[in-house]
Structures are given as structure tokens and as C-alpha cells.
């Protein structure tokens, strides 16, 4: 059997260490391995037969002598299954003589060659991907953005007789987000938020007012004077449940993904918002408070969550697909920014040693009870993977899978 054939069929490498009370050579060690294990195990695990049939490879020995003693390393390639390889590794420790000398052999580890290869593939794939990203020049990035913009425009919908710009989910979603203009709808579509509708001007259409009375409604306006004017008009003709604004001086159409998600996460009930902001007169404040009290009379008996939660889940599932087949994952902060990429072999230890503002863990694998328990202890809010196999889910942890 040639060296190339050995490398392609090997599943495991048995690593052992030998200490001999005298000077011994490599042939002495190989002879002891074959001779002193013969008859110890079943015929199926006889070393000579295993080597003859190619199920173990050439035994590699590196021996060193010093001060009348010998010490060295033994490596045995194995294409047996895991259990048979473990038995073979254990049998080496029964050897007590090498040549004329007393000796001791200790198995140090059994290395999974395929795991090493997978790690090499993952690391090389990361390098290739990094080079691909770095090779994309300004012209290519402009083309990519043009295509993305075209896709968003294609996805945009319309609502009502006024043909107001809206996301494709506006007709079916129990919760809606009211924004100012078409550009706001397009920007939120870019981040997977599809339950939006734009008022298109300071004068809010009556159709929006009627829609807000049937759905759980969040007003998401610009962080400037124009946003206040839209909000006043909307509160007077509609039934707004929650209010949020872009950061001071910014417009919704210009926000980055993390700014959008933070703004929608930090939405507050209308009555609470008005109590903290001097936007409406006292009479209008009272009107809004009454709307809040009548909220249970809306179309839905139980107030549904604003669809931003569904959109966050959709975003995380899209991120998970990016890791499919890589054997890797990532730790994310509250705004879904990746703070660290991790290997699934190290995922438990990475979660166990998490420090700082970690919110979500996404990885290419299966969520186990062990991972759930340690994530809950570290106050992780979400675990995202392709499947889960758990018995008990803590209340402070959300499990998201693609099953």
C-alpha cells in the first residue's frame, strides 16, 4: 500500500509515547507492537492481518536515546471505526518489553483526521471568501447596490385608493409600521421589514387612519420637526398604539440596520410617549389616552406583537444560511452586529466564556440541552441554528431554528 493510498483511507491517527530502560531501535519497537499484541485481541483485530488488508497503515516510530535510555513517539494510521481504533490504542499499553529492555507505552490521544481536514477546509474557505470580498472594487459594489435597489423596488407594494407605497405584508400583517415616505419603505425593505406603509405627505390619508384602527400600529417617524408634524396629524385621525423615532436629526430612509432595529425595539406605548414629549395639546393628549384604554376593543382580542420581532427572526435566519456548511457560527450583539466568529467545535466553551454585551449566538449545527443551559446562565437572549434537540427551554432564552 502506497503512502498516497494511506492518506486517503486514514480516519484516525493513534499517537503513543514509548519509554524504554535501555537503548532500542525502531525495528525493536515495531516488532514489539506486532509481537506482544498478537493473540491478545480477536482475529479481526490482529495487527498483521489489519496491516495486510490495509485497515491500519505503516507504523511510524521516532526514537531518541539519551543516558542509556530511549524515548520516542509512535503513530499508527487507522481506517477502522471509532470503537475498534480505541481498542487497538488501548492494547498498545499492554506492551512491557521492547527488544531486551523493559519498556512502557502510553497512548496520548487518538486524532480524528477528518476533523482536522474539516478545520483546514473552513480556514481556507474563510481566506478565499475574504479575498473575494476584498477583490470587489467600487464599480462592482455600485453594480451590486443597483441590483439590490432594483429588487427592493420590485418588491414594493401599494395600499388603498391613494396607492400609498407599502411593503408586501401590509395586506396580511396583524401589525403595521407607518412611515413618512416611499424612501422609508424602501430602506426598511432592505432590512427585511415588510409590514410598512407610507403616508406620503403631512396630510395623512383617511385610509391610513382607518387601517390603524384595525391593526396594531407603530408610528416610525423622522427625528426632526417634519416627523413631529406627521405624528400630530396621524394621532388626530388614527389609532396609534406605539411610537418610535429616528435618532435626533436623522431620517428613517438614511438609517443603518442596527439603528432601525434599535428604534423599533425601543418603541413605547403612545400614552407613555406623549407623557414624555410635548407634541400635542392637553385635549389631544386626553384623546390619545382614551384610545389606549379602548385598545382591547380592536379587531384582535389579544394584542399581537409588532411584526418587527418576526422581521428580526427573518434576518437571523438569513444570517444563519450564510454559515450553512461552514461548521462555524457567530456571536452577535443586541443590534445583530457580529462581535466574534466561532467554530462549532468550540461553541460551548465560547458561550461559557462570553463576556460583554452578547445577545445572540448563530451557528451551523444543532442546539443541544447543554448549549441551552450554558446560554441561559450567560443571559444570552437567542440561540439560532438549523435544528434543536432539547428537553427544557428556559424562559429567558428564545430558540430559533429552520426545521
Task: Report on the architecture of this protein.
The protein has 403 residues and is α/β, with parallel strands linked by helices. 41% of the residues lie in helices and 24% in strands. The protein contains 15 helices and 19 strands. Strand 10 (216-221), helix 9 (225-237) and strand 11 (242-245) form a beta-alpha-beta unit. Helix 11 packs antiparallel against helix 12 (282-293). It is elongated and about 100 Å long. It starts with a helix and ends with a strand.
Number of strands: 19
Our count of helices gives 15
The average pLDDT value, as a whole number, equals 82
User: Main β-sheet, in a few words?
Assistant: 5 strands, antiparallel
What is CATH's topology name of the largest domain? Dna Topoisomerase Vi A Subunit, Chain: A, domain 2
**Total tally of structural domains:** 3
What is the SS-derived class?
Answer: alpha/beta
Task: Summarize the helices and strands and which ones pair or pack.
Blueprint (H helix, E strand, L loop, with lengths): L2 H7 L2 E9 L5 H12 L9 H6 L7 E7 L2 E10 L3 H10 L5 E2 L2 E12 H22 L3 H18 L1 E3 L4 E3 L8 E5 L2 H9 L5 E3 L7 H9 L1 E6 L3 H13 L4 E4 L11 H9 L2 E2 H7 L5 H12 L14 H15 L5 E5 L5 E6 L3 H6 L7 E4 L2 E3 H9 L4 E4 L1 E3 L8 E4 L2
Parallel strand pairs: 8-9, 8-10, 10-11, 15-17, 16-18, 17-19
Antiparallel strand pairs: 1-3, 1-5, 2-3, 4-5, 6-7, 11-12, 13-14, 13-15
Helix pairs in contact: 11-12
